[in-house]
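Task: fold both queries, return tokens.
Query 1:
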Amino acid sequence: MPDSTYKPLIVQSDMTLLLETNNEAYESARDELAMFAEMEKSPEYIHTYRITPISLWNAASAGVRSADILASLQKYSKYPISDTVVMRIKQISDRYGKVRIIKDRGELFLETDDEFIMAQLCVEKTVAKFFIDTPRANRVKFNATYRGHIKQALMNIQFPPEDLAGYAAGERLEINLRSDVFQPRAYQLDAAGAFHAGGRGGHGVLVLPCGSGKTIIGLLTMAELNTETLILTTSITAIRQWIDELVQKTDIDPELIGEYSGEKKEVKPVTVTTYQIMSAKDRNEEQKHFQLFSQRNWGFIIYDEVHTLPAPVFRITAELQAKRRLGLTATLVREDGHETDVFALIGPKRHEMAWKVLEGQGWIAQAECFEMRVPMPAGLKMPYAVASKRDKFRIAAENPNKLEIVRKLIANHADAHILLIGVYLEQLEQMAESLNAPLITGKIKNKERVELYGRFKSGDIPLLVVSKVANFAIDLPDANVAIEGSGSFGSRQEEAQRLGRVLRPKKGENKAYFYTIVSRETREEEFSMHRQLFLTEQGYPYKITDEDV
């Protein structure tokens, strides 16, 4: 039989890819596809991917061009790739950088080598409205104030621009790393180097697994740029962790580091704040906090967990294109479809490190993932049957039979540090009371949270019940078991973040366990499959078990 018979991939003319999992080349094909395609479905035997414009442009910005993509597809495809697919990949991928933003004598221009593209831009109202002059020699001047807005408009007509206009230096601040305290890992240096590669060092997103030390990469970039820096993150806990890292691992005077939160309003040469403060529900309050972006001459802005960036911060970021910008995240997946805004306003993906690669090198824990399906109680079957779609999900998520499975898992991991994670507060309160375990929710004051986290780290508390507040930025390196009692519908990013809570490297056996408990034959099964897509793409298959109670 011809060799092609044994290849694992089918490339379809609608830009979907079907990958056989029961094939020796599955893992290598999966790793290559992840560079330029997005996973859509992951049942047992055939995984479905889709090639999209944003996946191709992120690949192009990271140096993976159309020829590389086609070579990968041809290497693994059972059948010849249609001319339609070849042409579309070339056309879409090669559009990245066809239009450039440049600076000449202090003014900003759109530039292209193709007169037909310039003609198209001139008649495209969403782009041309920002032009100040008529085009000359395939370049046209535009209002620098709208640098971010014109990038969004170009993305919308599928001409992702390469921004070469440079950045304001900002106020200088000498920043050195303390080599006597720590040594950056090789992959952290590689990631920071990718941000600065080719003199770009101005905008972009770095994608690395949870637990890999993305904060360290932020410090490395700060030390390279030596400028006043504004850091946006997800919570007051994350603020304090960034400040601790800055104090411990750099020579910045602690008096020059400020916290801008609900508890303090310090604006200093290095200031750490939260997205929540920046996106207050009251518009007047929001505008007051937005002044933070102009209160100092920032030369650098770091967006931690950039995939959670809320719409109000996108708006202000559109006005900040002269500032250097770094996005840090474990996944570029967004459930709201704003991936193109991250690309346009923060920057394209500059570097990505596969989760399994770091696991293989021992930098994050080896993780096993399980989906445990439990029956609904007889008394809830009729209420579930007649409920609305949204209520069906909640009834299934709060299935009281899940508690028995939680007890079983706790008994099976008697010496572990266990996080029990959920969405619905009433469910969490009942579980915490039944298990005699402390509960951390958004209602718990930060001081009390820190105390409970400390007792968990010391081993005084072996089990913590936590709400969505624990999805991000809690530093619990000894946590090695996570049990997901309920999740946010089909949120892939939440699933990734929750696994990330237990991925920090462990002393001794470097292993972690992630259990998600779902109600059998309910909508929760459907959403669970979608939640698992990103992690499956990263190489974390879920072992599915049926449980009786």
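Query 1 returned. Query 2:
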Amino acid sequence: MKNSKKNSIFGDFRQGCKDFFKNPALYFDRSFSSGIGKQIGWLLAVFLFVLALLYVIYCLLPVKVSFGERFSYLVYQLLEPLEPTDKSMPFSFAVIVHVCGLIVLGGMLISVVSNILERRLEAYRNGETSYKLKDHIIIIGYNASVPSLIKTIRTENDIENDETFILVQSGQDSSEVRNQLQITLDEWMVKNTIVVHGLGSSEEDLLKLNIGTCVKVYIIGDSTLEAHDSMNLDCLSVIAKIWRECHPETVSDKDKNLVNKLNCNVLFEYQTLYSIFQFSELKEEINNAILFHPFNLHENWAKKVLVVGAADKQSAYKPMEGDEGFNENSKQHVHMIIIGMSRMGTALAVETAQTAHYPNFREDNDATRTHITFIDCDALEQMESFKSRFANVFDMMRWRYVDTRAVNGTLYTLTDNSWVNPIEEETSPYRHLGPNFTDLQWEFLDGRLESAPIRKYLTDAVNDKSTVTTIAVCLPDTQQATRAALYLPDMVLRNAHQVLIYQEESDAIARSVNNPNDPCTKFNNLVPFGMISDTYCNDFIGDNEGKWINAYWAKEFAPEDQRDNYRRAWNEKDEAWADRIWNNESVSNKWSSIHSANMLFAKLRSIGCTVEDNIENIRKAMEENMQGLVFTEHNRWVAEQLMAGFRPLFADEWETYKKSKKAKKKAEKAHGNICSNKVLEEVEPGSHDKDKQVTLALLEIIKK
């Protein structure tokens, strides 16, 4: 190895000499501007050349001084002019040496040193400086949501943390990125935040980030570039490669519980891709190195409004079913009306479908189904796109499309003939499962918000005593959404449970017209959401509750030789054990646990409890209302599976399932438990015990 290195250095030197003599000026410009090392090299080369030349001349002069003394006098004279006391150096030659010293060690040295410092500062401003960091967090890419992410990291678990280094790599101008962070965030938040320039798809740039010693990576992507999702996936592949090279033990799966993986959160701009990667496994070379967590900014906000916000009594966002919740005897249902089938609108609908499940649902009563309505002037085309994305949902669930420009009279009715009930049609491949057992229904109204039929529909909806109606104005243009919300009918603004208004850029207008001190204002129910600068919140991406639900399942279904260890770890609330189980779980199972955990507060409200109540009182209330909670969990799971692309069993598969009890056909994404609560109890007695166990597991999560 040493010989090859010497040969390489010698070869570089020889090539450099050839280049120099071929075009000296070009070679000088290139090498002198390429880096600090070559600048110092040039300075030393010039100094040694001048020293050698002057020494040769000095040796030829007729003075009575030894050659060694001549060298000493020459060096002294170059460094600092000395008066020759014994005529050891002629005056004229001393002047020449002095001038050479001024040029080489004065002019050139000062120029090189100042240039080095200037280049160092310029490199920092341009994000070209790399640092040796450890246990840091990396954010790759920059958009307007990054300041919110940094704020969330800095205040995680309500602890102000400015010690951890956060490295932001972006292909945008580093000075502008740094200025935006300094304007948006408090000084202590940006103290240990470093901005570097680079591309997330470049392995050379990523190697400078010390990925092998970091603790977490967020792949955001630059807002100035196109094809964010594909570029983010390319970046993920390169990071996995770098991590495997830094941690060779990663590729070993002899004991998957000991595999060292990098926690990597990847932003997907488009919800279609995001949905796919929620329930799809990555390639093995990535999966062995990365703990993959996909997320989407619109889905984040939907969860923030409907789950996180609704769980906090101090939040501006209200629970969809109201503060009291729906118990088994409630006569009301949730009606979510979304104006505008934008990306934010569809995200809000999907989150509603995942979380709005209640124990008062009855299969024979359409008025107890959660009702999701889209209003859009291009609803037909948007509906077809949405239905193709969730084909299995619309093979099972009740839905209808209404062109309001071709209809007279009221539209708000659940009993007219315009509704389609796919599972009960003669041609349905799932008719053997009985009446419609899903607790959601979908509605698409085609028309302009300003039209009389739509305004009357909204007024009728908020005045219906059997519903708790939330209206979400999700038009993509902020000004358009503001105008639409402010000019809704007065009755709608006053009587709606809440009116959400999508404000991506700023919530200033909505905050200004919503004056809680003015009892006469009609805008008290108007609440802004979706601001890009406030996208994240603490414990939002980690989904700690889902991790513990997953741990509970692992404990219940542990291999016999591990059962005692798992139960001991559960009882001791062993965080490392829960993390290990979570890290080795499939992406789809993780999301299933997360969706189940998101129902925690709605379930508690349905039995008249909160997380602040005594744990034994909650346990007692759960046991008294267990059947309703179990049926609710199953209904939630059915909706989740259908939205994830699973289907029920066909008639011939169903007959086999009743005999073998093998419910899941993984390759075909089919599951026998996608059926009504009643049918499931008949076919597989005791299957609801799992849902009961999950419900009781929530008690342990509340304790923790």
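Both queries returned. Flag for query 2: The chain has four domains: 15-125, 137-295, 301-534, 544-703.
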